[in-house]
């Protein structure tokens, strides 16, 4: 009986030890978050997320790990954002134009000429520390998402594979690739262009085959995605500013501990400051790459830029009625 008692006690102790070990092992298991985005390798958005991953893993001692799936590996930004909404993907990065498909409020930042590069620092401050960022986070919350990082994307310029772009009139009748954003489509229409919504991953082929003969995007992304192989002309239209917004499934965010949320938020902010500075360098390199490729870049005169602003004014007026007035006021405040 005595031997049986000791054997039973020993077995119980061993089971308890194994149970504690299992709990400890489970507690130490790293949290892995999957992030999908459509941007090309080396792009300013791409390197920003790589920096974000580095900082999250560093700050958490690799207790939080980020798996990045870029270059449309998991689909376009619309596809990955739908997955993030559904909770089948933790994080998605979507361009602000494509986010219009999820909430019209996101059209506010994409309206033509509502922001100007000279006021960029004020816009950043409003996004990072002010009510503008909070308002956009509230919009995201309404569609089951949480804003993590307002990644710098940049100002879009019109480019063409066939026709010189030396004036505003040269834009007329061009078949131009757009996203599904109603704002982008309306801008193209007001300028006399023929808009054709095409997924980003299919745009190079569409240009190559003549399905479209123009697009509007940052020089940096166009260079990284090798569109410079088929483009011949460009103008510095800077017709709208875009961001790539890093979003997380809201339920997933709420399930994290306060410490995990703090690590992710701090890493996102630090990565964003770094990424915005890196964007300036990459954009300069892209401009030079355009010139090296022999792409003709027309620099708009002040009169031509004003003409573009006037021609696109109806777009701003039309969509202002569909966007929360608060958002438009907050953006306008950054331009004073």
End-to-end C-alpha gap: 89 Å
Number of helices: 14
Contiguous low-pLDDT stretches (5 residues minimum) are 3-26
The gross shape turns out to be: globular
Biggest sheet details: 10 strands, mixed
The value of Rg in angstroms is 24 Å
Average residue-wise pLDDT = 92
Strand content: 15-25%
Q: Helical amount among residues, as a percent range?
A: 40-55%
The counted number of beta strands is: 10
Helix and strand pattern: HEHEHEHHHEEHEHEHEEHHEHHH
How would you classify the helix and strand content by structural class?
alpha/beta
Describe the structure.
With about 325 residues, this protein is of the alpha/beta class. It contains 14 helices and ten strands. It has helices spanning about 1-30, 45-60, 75-85, 95-100, 120-130, 130-140, 180-190, 200-210, 220-225, 250-255, 260-290, 300-310, 315-320, 325-335; strands at about 30-35, 65-70, 90-95, 145-160, 175-180, 195, 215, 235, 240-250, 295-300. Strands 1, 2, 3, 4, 5, 6, 7, 8, 9 and 10 form a ten-stranded mixed sheet that branches. Mean pLDDT is about 90; it is low at about 5-25.
Question: Summed up, what is this model?
Answer:
It is built from 14 helices and ten strands. The chain is an alpha/beta fold and 336 residues long.
Task: Quickly list its features.
about 325 residues; alpha/beta; ten-stranded mixed sheet; 14 helices; globular
Topology:
Layout: H1 2-28, E1 31-36, H2 44-59, E2 64-69, H3 77-86, E3 91-95, H4 96-99, H5 120-128, H6 131-141, E4 145-160, E5 175-178, H7 182-190, E6 194-197, H8 200-209, E7 214-217, H9 219-224, E8 233-235, E9 240-249, H10 250-255, H11 258-292, E10 296-298, H12 302-311, H13 313-320, H14 325-333
Parallel strand pairs: 1-2, 1-3, 5-6, 5-7, 8-10
Antiparallel strand pairs: 3-9, 4-7, 4-8, 4-9
């Amino acid at each position: 009986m005595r031997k049986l008692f000791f054997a039973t006690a020993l077995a119980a102790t061993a089971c308890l030890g194994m149970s504690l070990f299992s709990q400890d092992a489970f507690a130490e298991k790293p949290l892995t978050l999957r992030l999908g985005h459509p941007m090309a390798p080396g792009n300013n958005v791409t390197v920003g997320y790589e920096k974000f991953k580095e900082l999250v893993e560093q700050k958490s001692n690799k207790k939080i790990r980020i798996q990045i799936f870029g270059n449309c590996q998991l689909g376009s930004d619309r596809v990955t954002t739908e997955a993030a909404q559904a909770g089948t993907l933790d994080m998605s990065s979507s361009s602000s134009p494509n986010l219009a498909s999820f909430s019209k409020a996101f059209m506010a930042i994409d309206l033509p000429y509502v922001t100007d590069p000279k006021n960029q620092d004020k816009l950043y401050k409003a996004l990072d520390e002010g009510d503008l960022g909070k308002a956009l986070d509230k919009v995201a919350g309404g569609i089951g998402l949480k804003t993590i990082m307002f990644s710098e994307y940049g100002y879009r310029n019109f480019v063409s594979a066939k026709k010189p772009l030396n004036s505003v009139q040269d834009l007329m009748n061009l078949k131009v690739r757009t996203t599904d954003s109603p704002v982008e489509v309306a801008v193209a229409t007001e300028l006399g262009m023929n808009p054709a919504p095409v997924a980003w991953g299919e745009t190079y082929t569409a240009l190559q085959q003549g399905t479209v003969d123009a697009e509007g995007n940052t020089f940096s992304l166009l260079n990284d995605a090798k569109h410079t192989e088929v483009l011949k002309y460009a103008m510095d239209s800077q017709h709208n500013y875009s961001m790539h917004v890093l979003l997380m499934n809201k339920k997933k965010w709420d399930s994290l501990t306060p410490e995990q949320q703090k690590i992710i938020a701090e890493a996102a902010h630090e990565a964003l400051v770094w990424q915005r500075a890196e964007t300036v360098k990459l954009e300069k390199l892209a401009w030079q790459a355009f010139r090296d490729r022999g792409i003709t870049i027309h620099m708009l005169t002040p009169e031509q830029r004003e003409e573009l602003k006037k021609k696109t004014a109806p777009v701003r007026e039309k969509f202002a009625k569909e966007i929360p007035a608060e958002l438009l006021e907050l953006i306008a405040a950054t331009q004073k």
